[in-house]
Amino acid sequence: MSDRGKCQYPDDVDVIREREYPLLKDTTYLDHAGTTLYAKSLIESFSRDLTSNLYGNPHSMSAPSQLSTQRVDDIRLRALRFFSADPEEFDLVFVANATAAIKLVADSFRESTPQGFWYGYHVDSHTSLVGARELAGIGSRCFVTDAEVESWISQLDTEPVQGPRLFAYPAQSNMNGRRFPRGWCGRIRESAKDTYTLLDVASLVSTSPFDLSDASAAPDFAVLSFYKIFGFPDLGALIVRKSAGHIFDKRKFFGGGTVDMVLTQGTQWHAKKQSSIHERLEDGTLPFHNIIALGSAFDTHERLFGSMDNISSHTRFLAKRLYDRMTTLRHYNGESVCHVYKPSHSDYTDPSTQGPILAFNLRSSQGAWIGKSEVEKMASVRNIQIRSGTLCNPGGTAASLNWSGADMLRHFGAGMRCGDDHDIMDGRPTGILRVSLGAMSNLTDIDTFMGFIEEFYVEKSPNVCALVPPLEANLTHRSGFHVESLSVYPIKSCGAFKVPDGKRWEIRREGLVWDREWCLIHQGTGTALNQKRYPRMALIRPFIDLSHGVLRVTCGSIRSPSQKTLEIPLDRENSNLTTTSLCQNSSKPSTVCGDQVIVQAYSSPTVSAFFSDFLGVPCTLARFPPQSSTRLAEPRRGLGSRKSPLRPAMPGAFPQDTPTPEAERNPILLSNESPILLISRSSVNRLNETIKSSPTTTNSTGRKKAVAADVFRANIVVAEDFPQPVSAGRPYIEDHWESLRIGPDNLHFNVLGSCQRCQMVCVDQLTGVRGEEPYSTLAKTRKSGNKIYFGRHLAISSNGDGNSVNSRTVMVGDVVTPSYYGP
């Protein structure tokens, strides 16, 4: 098995994947540190178990209840043996996850003495380990280096003891896979009394054995999540060294199943169970079905992979292969593409120092950092699942990126938040990309990921091939432009209403009338829905019927007999509207640039059922309140000049955008960035030529298909007045426009900037199906400053055309006269 390392699985890993992991079809999954994947036969085995046995609540004496109790006891023992833990020395407490186990320990330490406890933790700890510091009444300390830990251990016996001390650290960094000295636990125990260790093994146990056979060297508390090992069930464990169990003696709270007697009238008294640690700590009814599923997980895991040693060997081989390929990848000028964050002493061939996780960022040939969010988005389009951000490891990430606390506070003040796309600040990355391998990873995963990096981020020559020549004077004096189509999107992120030919449409400072005046909001979170998460929203098609005064909404495929229709009055009277707060920051895919917006939600059950039933999401329609626009257009800038040193010959080279003065900023309703979005038919045509001429990907069949202009969701599509042929067009010339006039009244529009694109352009607006184009091609041909651009943001000028606001209209066929940036 020379090309697969020393893996000794019972079957070839590719055979296992084909049989057990159909969910991996056409997908490259590289986020096993988040959760690994469950096997098909695990779910089937658990299902057979549930349908063949009657399991009752364990807190009863009935036969079904006793069966549950027996299974829980057996699986608890099996879990201890899985980690080579002697049940005479250790007990295992079932909890929701590793974080719940950490909190249980920290809460118990806080209650163990009147003054509380002292807490120390390693800088490379998971956020949940860091959070325990807030409960430490005596104080806390973050150890920035291993040397600091070593020095502290050596002086433990000389330090004054004010109360119990707890030192926590990860067995393996969830950020970069670096493994920590296991010997600290035993040394701390030997060096001082009343000092305990908490070891976070959640990341480690995903791909490595965790051996507790030597109780004297073991941590006092170990926390883990079983889904990291098996993918399912969602269950965690706290493994307690019994000699440290007295820490829980003064725990105040008790729940059902943890007491032998409780008095509630008169004297308030209770007697805790004393037979085992887990009986005292497992409050209420155990998640016994999840625990029973854990039994199926142990069986399946052993049958598929043999042992954790096998998994460790397999993933170590793959990680080394990936690391070698990433660190040797070069641009045309010899500069490294991948910057891997790895301690110098760790080695991907040594399981005592390194696990199968790679933390990295990408750089251009000139050394500029490439934004993590953009890489993750592009990977997602290619069905490659990776992780980006601070990876729930704030200290390790900050240390790797050399960010100080003052730096991060400044970033927070500038608007940076967890999960947003503030990728680069002060010229440095704010987060990290992570690839993590699992038991069922294979060489194809490595090849696919490296092929993705090479295709999109390795610069093979000093110049990027331009699709158009630089702007020349004669180009600005050739045939003119006209409005090819007008589109209004009454419900944000839903289908377009095409303004009929010959119909003049009113335009205001907020944009085309009725554009993005409504949105769909999640009834639980208040978050606005969007096509990135719910692509079927493209099949919700509004029609503005001015003659009847209604917004007629149709759901379903065109000409489908199952289509349903709902009519919403355009008039706000008698519309069952309730004012509510639309919090855009409650989830990552913020749809209104992070603004918190007050909207009026429709309270009618008929309205909410219409949209909820179609999307399969509990949602309702909401409307932007009248005369209350406090949102202002803020198109994203920073495109760089046409002489940018990073992309000197980029197609449609971007001129420097001029910032809009605060006094002239335009109000918007529920649009993302600006009142109006414009694209060019010639640019769409050129993009499609590029798409059709590019090679297909591994998972594609046949020639790539052109995309419709509708995927860009523009309000205005302009076309050139060709005398013929179409090849005479000027694609991307709109990038040179500073302003334009439209129609017989010469309505003046300012160009605010270029439109930054995301994966939503991959949703086919006719079928609601997501693909990889045009985002893949845009990423190669329309990137500037690590952002992808296509189309231009517009706003109607507030003065200078002599027309009153209410008389401004545009129509399909109107002449468009652009003004160009100066040289």
Task: Explain what this protein looks like in three dimensions.
The chain has about 800 residues and is an alpha+beta fold. It is about 25% helix and about 20% strand. The chain contains 18 helices and 37 strands. The strands form nine sheets. The chain has a seven-stranded mixed sheet with strand order 2-8-7-6-5-3-4, with helices on both faces. A seven-stranded mixed beta barrel has the order 19-31-30-35-33-32-37. Strands 11, 12, 13, 15 and 18 form a five-stranded antiparallel sheet that branches. The longest helix has 20 residues, at about 65-80. It is globular.
Summarize the helices and strands and which ones pair or pack.
Layout: H1 13-20, E1 28-29, H2 40-52, H3 63-82, E2 90-95, H4 98-112, E3 118-122, H5 127-131, E4 139-143, H6 146-154, E5 165-170, H7 184-191, E6 195-200, E7 221-225, H8 227-230, E8 236-241, E9 259-263, E10 269-272, H9 277-281, H10 288-305, H11 308-327, E11 338-340, E12 357-363, E13 369-370, H12 372-381, E14 384-385, E15 387-389, H13 394-401, H14 405-413, E16 424-425, E17 428-429, E18 432-436, H15 443-457, E19 481-488, E20 497-498, E21 505-508, E22 511-512, E23 518-522, E24 540-545, E25 550-555, E26 564-569, E27 577-583, E28 596-602, H16 605-615, E29 619-623, E30 676-680, H17 681-693, E31 716-720, E32 737-742, E33 747-756, H18 775-781, E34 783-784, E35 787-796, E36 809-810, E37 815-820
Parallel strand pairs: 1-14, 3-4, 3-5, 5-6, 6-7, 30-31
Antiparallel strand pairs: 2-8, 7-8, 9-10, 11-12, 12-13, 12-18, 15-18, 16-17, 19-20, 19-31, 19-37, 21-22, 21-36, 23-29, 24-25, 25-26, 27-28, 28-29, 30-35, 32-33, 32-37, 33-35, 34-35
Helix pairs in contact: 2-10, 3-10
